[in-house]
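so i finally got all the pieces together for this one. its two components total, 801 residues if u count the protein bits. some of the lines might not be protein, just check the labels. i wanna see the whole assembly predicted at once instead of chain by chain like last time, that was a mess tbh
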Amino acid sequence: MENFTTILNNQTIPVADIPEVNYATFLEMNAGFIISSPERHCVNYFGYPVQNHIKLICCIADDNTHNIHVSSCLVNPSDTLDSFTARHFCFEKFEREIHENFGIGYKDHPWLKPVRYAKNRFDQSKTIANYPFYSIDSDELHEVAVGPIHAGIIEPGHFRFICNGEQILHLEIQLGYQHRGIEQQFLDKKNLLQRSTLAESIAGDTVVGHTTTFSHVWESLCGIQTSRDIEFSRTLALEMERMANHTGDLSAVCADIAYQLGNSVLGRLRTPLINFMQEWGGNRLSKGLIRPGRNQFPFTPELANRLTEVLDAYEPDFVEMNKQLFQLPSALSRFERTGVVSYDDVLSIGTVGMAARMSGLRRDIRSSHPYSLYPEITHEPILKHHGDVYSRVQIRRQEVMQSMQYIRDMIANVPEYIEQEPELGSPEPNSFAISLVEGWRGEICHCAITDNSGELIQYKIKDPSFHNWLALALAVRNNEISDFPICNKSFSLSYSGHDL
Amino acid sequence: MLSLVLILIASFFFTGIIIRTKSISSGRKGPGIFQPVKDVWRLFKKGSVYSETTSFVFQIAPVIYFSSVVMAILVVPFGSTKGIISFDGDFIFFAYVLALGKFFSIISAMDTGSSFEGMGASREALYSMFAEPAFFILMGSFALLTGHTSFFEIFSTLHLGSYITYALGIMATFVLVMIAMIENSRMPIDDPKTHLELTMVHEVMILDNSGFDLGLILSTGYLKFAMYGTLIANLYIGELSLLYAIPAFFFIQFAFAVSVGIIESFMARYRMSHNPQFIFALSSVSLLIFLGVLLVLGKFV
């Protein structure tokens, strides 16, 4: 018998089919998958309690073969283990999470700090007010602490800079203020509507991404085949969400470099996109649009005509504004060579989505593990190679154009909506399901495990921000502290998606 | 006396025009012209809150800052009418009384002990330091050209009559506009609209000020703008009679405010590390003025 099992995106398998190996084999095998194989990355690595033990499950996605390798291992909470992180840094955050939740120790983990101070953490004596910050003792250096209360209107997070004058030597990002215990609530709330609403609340700007992932997990667990019109709506909504958020972020980047024209024009352009979502599903942020197994708001040919009008009005303004922005010397001098993260760095810390593609790392679930209508679209990811702010804004600009083309192609051929009573059934008992979706920020991964009555016993969420925050901390090193806001905005990461 | 009154009047609408220009150029209606003044009036009616870590320096600094600018305004003439004070070398007094106010605003920022405000203070000190040579070379050149050393005499005897002096006038206007932008922490040096403390220069220094003190600091900013606008106007209205000079003054102030608004609408702020280079380039322009003056006087051998 092999030491791991291989499944596809959105596949459900019995938990018993996941081979359980001893920890040494588990470590060697999973580290071996990743080391010197940039086409593979860890999409989720988590633990859950099984009687008095902790069962660790590691999912490694292979972008070339479109497979996901799943393996498991049973350990004791009191164990002190060799860390995966010592082999490859991309496991760093996962192991910190396992350490925080279950108290498992690691011998050679270089940075075993709390992740988010989860409510059900193992060591309740650790509190967010006593985070062990890294510090450097020197008379020449000074520390700047920003947050957790944000100067603007966004979410809370604490940033601790160590600076030499205007130059940042080190940035440590401490999160967890937004923790709501979403994963636990998925188990506590038994009603499907409640769970769908929870999925919407994981990250308020990625409603479609997370609800689609949740729906895929649920449908996979219940063994439902969704009709084409449902998957059509999801794909369309995902691309609309991408366009709207990228446009909003381009506007915010302009605000951070004090370019008022770009800020106001792009800010205005986002509005018709989200207003269209309201016309379609009754909510500008697409809440309530996507539900497991059913088509809440069928996309009609009339809506397609409206969307064509919206896009026809949007496109010329967006193209012209970007032409202006990308020709403006004062803007380019702020973008270029600011906040660089090298290919080697993004590979080793395991960033996903835009934060990987900016440095030439090809990570895009739409092409590597296609779902919904993406197998038909044959998506080609947009790659940049410099890893600076300029690459990140260029990716946004081009992805908006790409998404717009996808949407135009899709709505030329709206599938017919067949009204039928959704048959939801109940989840398979003792099963494991995994779903990957490329949200606008990057890869979203949800894993679910059921017990022998078909109830959820573990629901694990990985938002793209989970890994990408570290990329921001690396990006600002040796940059000026006054360039931090633009670096931050060019990543545009989620606090609540990380804190769960 | 006339200049003081005119500067006061101009300061009432100056910042409002900048904000309105920015609003209109981004397709918005924008607040009324007098909104900034109303804001200050609202602040004047409020009390101030003082942090426990601050000392008396923090409490007296806004008043000193305000009065330093008022004192600087006293020496500014208006065309052929003197300022309230006028003496030989008063432009040096002008520069250093402003520097005194700035010094107090810097140490009051340091007094709060906030890491943000220290950063802002060091930036402001650096930029002012770099802007100083430009101002002195400019005024020194005019002193050489006219043979006088007070603002009033320099401006009232300054005749723009030949091509070279027109060029000098344009360059001097450019230098004064840019010094005004630097001293008021406007674009492209600083972004007054941002909410991001890490990129601020002047705004971050006054984070701890509130109520009456904040009102004083804001109104000082309005006065400063109008004061620099008056210096620029003085380059052109020296010989005009008051009947023409006063409308010309308001036109120049208006054009100055609109151009500030337009600059702020259509370009991005400089990278912080490029600011010193940019400010230092002003000194080179001032040196060109100096050479131009030498040419006019025929002092080249």
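The interface with chain B takes residues 142-146, 151-152, 165-166, 254-261, 263-265, 268, 328, 330-331, 333-334, 338, 480-485 of chain A (CB under 8 Å).
The mean pLDDT of chain A is 90.
anyway lmk what u think
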